[in-house]
Structure formats: C-alpha cells, structure tokens
Amino acid sequence: MAGQVINGKEIVATIREEIKAEVLELTAVGCEPGLVVIIVGDDPASHVYVNGKEKACAQVGIYSEVHRLPAETTQDELVSLIHVFNRDARIHGILVQSPLPAHINEDEVVDHIAPDKDVDCFHPINVGNLMIGKKTGMKPCTPAGVIQVLKRIGTEISGKHAVVVGRSNIVGKPMAMLLLQENATVSIVHSRTPDMAEITRQADILVVAVGKANLIGPEHVKPGAIVIDVGMNRTDGKLRGDVDFEAVKEISGAITPVPGCVGPMTITMLLQNTVNAARLSQNTQ
Ligand code: GUN
Questions:
Q1: Can you give the residue ranges of every domain in the chain?
Q2: Distance of alpha carbon 211 from its chain centroid, rounded?
Q3: Does 141-263 match 31-115 at the fold level?
Q4: Ligand 1 atom nearest to 170, measured from its CA
Q5: Of 82, 112, 170, 175, best ligand 1 pocket probe by most atoms within 8 Å of the beta carbon
Q6: Secondary-structure breakdown of the chain: helix, strand, coil percentages, each rounded to the nearest 5
Q7: Model-level pTM?
Q8: How wide is the angle at C-alpha 49 spanned by C-alphas 47 and 55, nearest 5°?
Q9: What is the per-residue pLDDT for 3?
Q10: Active site includes 181?
Q11: CA–CA separation, 186 and 205 (whole Å)
C-alpha cells in the first residue's frame, strides 16, 4: 500500500499563520521584526531563493530589506555592510546568501554577523550552542523545518532510529543534533560509508540531504519508514529531490514531495528565527 505524501503546503500555511500572529503582537508593542538579506553576484538560483524569502517576509508582515551587491564586491565591503546591520535596531536578522563569489571567504564573513542576529544559525557560537543543547531562539532553518514536519504529522521521534544521509554543515550535522535533542537514536551515513543501504534500511526516520538525484531507492528504505527528502536537484529543467519519489512512495509510511515541503519549510523557519530574534531583542533594550 502506498504511503502518505506529506502535505507540506498545508503545514507551511499553518505555521506562517502562527508567525503572522506573533509579528502582529510584536509590532503592536513597537518591535516590528526586521530581516536583511544580502546577496553578492548573479547566481540565478540564489536570486530566485532570495526573492522567495522577500515574498515570505511580506506575507507574514516582517519588515525586510534585500541588498543585491555586484559580483566584484570585496570581502571588506561585505563585512562593513554586515557591521552596519549589526548596529541597526530595526534589523533583527541578517542573512548572507550562500554561495558567495570565490574571492570571498564565507566562514570569515559569517564570523562577523552578530550571533543574536544570525538567523541562519551558521555562526560558530550558535553552532556550539546547538551542540551543547542550549536554547537560544536560533535554530538551523532546514533541520528545524524537518523536525517541525515530523511533529506536525504526529511522528513520535523519541526512541526511534533516525538515519541522516549526508554530513554537511548546513543540513547533515545540525540535523543529527536536533534529532538527538528529540531523543532519537541517530546514525549519519555519507559517501565513505561502505554499505549505506544496510544502515538506511534500519531507519524509522530517514532524512536525505546529499544533493544527488535518485540516490535513494526502495532498496534503501524499510517498509513504513518516514522519508524526508532535503535534496534540490535541477535536472532537465525539473526540480527533483535525492529520493526516487515514485518508487519509494510505494513502501514508505510517509514521504515529502520535492518541491513543496522542505524548501518552503526552510524559509518558514527563517521567518520564525527572525521573530524569535526580535522577541529576544526586547529583553536587551
Ligand atoms: N543558500 C542555500 N540555502 C541557504 C540558506 O539556508 N542560507 C543561506 N544563507 N544561503 C543559502
């Protein structure tokens, strides 16, 4: 029997309504949440993502600014702009869209974002806080979105075996940390894992974040498992995940579609982090 296709659009719409209410409440007390997005260069996909973030802010009433800088922008110029927003009381979240042009060192740039405005949760201080389980109001957007999807479809995470495919700093590693915080038993598999299928087949919850279309087929999935596909691969002009959706759908308990679930959930968590940062800024004024 085919499994449930997770209705990402409905989950996203519900959470954005909740965020909208929070924004109204904060705005009423003189603290309208504000996000700045900085993009350098002309990578077309990045511009599409940034436009999506701008639109999402408008949808929930968050004040936003987008700074579109030319590809020749120097690292010093970018860092100076970040410091301007670190000091700007109207701005509660700063996001520097990745990837940056090759002459700019992304890690060094992220180090300059004030940790309490780091809505991506990429700053080493926030990564460290995630590691020790300290609650800061800032959670990595894609992994936090995955946890929300699991909870909103009623998944009991505690005690389950969660397998994360991929070990990136943006998704794989923080995903494993958040699942561990939810008391899952967590395994991470990656390109050097000798027999990946042997481990993925043990997963009650399988999160795939590699960036390779059709990497995961039915032979990797335990019948009834919940499969979350974080992949976004553009092949033949079509957007596909890392999971062979049609085949895996037949045996999974539930599966996310690509596009239409993890992508918009990631943006939704960015909105939530901005609201959380605005709320926390009230305590420090
Ligand atoms: N590029 C692709 N995804 C992301 C993201 O979540 N944050 C940033 N800053 N850049 C990205």
A1: 31-115, 141-263
A2: 14
A3: yes
A4: 6
A5: 170
A6: 45, 15, 40
A7: 0.97
A8: 100
A9: 81
A10: no
A11: 9
Beta bridge partners of 190: none
Is the distance from CB of 204 to CB of 185 less than 8 angstroms? no
Alpha-carbon distance values, 137 to 2, 34, 157 (Å): 38, 15, 21
**What CATH class is the domain 141-263?**
alpha beta
Measured between its terminal Cα atoms, the distance across the chain in Å is 56
Active-site option among 120, 229, 242, 244: 120
Is the pLDDT confidence value at 220 over 60?
A: yes
Average pLDDT over every residue of 40-63:
97
- Percentage of the residues of the chain whose pLDDT score is greater than 70: 99
Banded model confidence at residue 190, pLDDT cuts 50, 70, 90: very high
Q: What is the CATH number of domain 31-115?
A: 3.40.50.10860
> Using CA of residue 102, residue 103, residue 107, residue 113, what is the dihedral sign?
negative
Q: Which atom of ligand 1 is nearest to the CA of 96?
A: 9
- What 8-state DSSP symbol labels residue 188? E
| Residue bearing the CA closest to ligand 1, atom 2 | 98
Among protein residues, the one with the nearest Cα to ligand 1's atom 4 is: 98
Work out which ligand 1 atom sits closest to the CA atom of 141.
Answer: 6
